[in-house]
Amino acid sequence: MLTSRWTRLLSVLGAIALFGSAPTLAQDIPDKPFAEAKFVLQISDMDPDKQTLVLNVAGNILKYYGPDKSDVEIVAFGPGLRLLFEGNSNTGRIKSLADSGVRFAACQNTINNMSNTLGRAVQVNPQATVVPGGIVRIKQLVDAGYTLVKP
Predict the structure, then answer these.
(1) How far apart are CA 76 and CA 135, in angstroms?
(2) Domain range annotation of the chain
(3) Residues 6+ apart with CB under 8 A from 115
């Protein structure tokens, strides 16, 4: 009988054989060749002040480096996903930052858990891309050379 570790390894190897590479998240890391600074900003806190702070930090990065020389992604998971709820009071700021090149990632695991808890489907801001896991997305970006900031 195979252990769960071997079973997982065999399923990854099977995916590689089937698809030619290891499975990745839905959103690949963008290619911004002129970016001098790459940041992933984590928001996992329900506190509105911290949610405002993460948006301020993204705006300050854009001001300092400029939109062409910076690459910023805000990843929301856990209670911090509320920042990306459709209709959140920060919707206008999120759109403005997205128009300047900031990306927003919403954790599918959290969406599922919150939908179950609330008894209704959680709708996220249309500026956000849903990723399978917030933590996994952060690790992917950090592994690609992004600096993790947890305001």
Answers:
(1) 9
(2) 35-149
(3) 121, 122
Residue at 13: amino acid letter: L
Helix or strand (DSSP H, E) at 11: helix 4-19
Phi, psi of 19 (to 5 degrees): -105, -10
Q: What CA–CA distances, in Å, run from 124 to 13, 55, 96?
A: 34, 16, 16
CA proximity to 147, closest of 54, 69, 72: 72
Q: Average pLDDT, stretch 31-56?
A: 93
Q: If one looks up domain 35-149 in CATH, what number appears?
A: 3.40.1260.10
pLDDT tens-digit readout, 136-145: 999 999 999 9
What does the block give as tokens for 90? Answer: 């920060």
Given this model, what pLDDT does residue 29 score?
A: 80
Q: State how far the Cα of 95 lies from the Cα of 64, in Å rounded to an integer.
A: 20
DSSP 124: B
> What confidence category does residue 20 fall into, taking pLDDT thresholds of 50, 70 and 90?
very low
Helices (runs of H) and strands (runs of E) counted in the chain: 5, 5
pLDDT at residue 94, rounded to an integer:
98
Q: Which two tokens stand for residue 70?
A: 């910076």
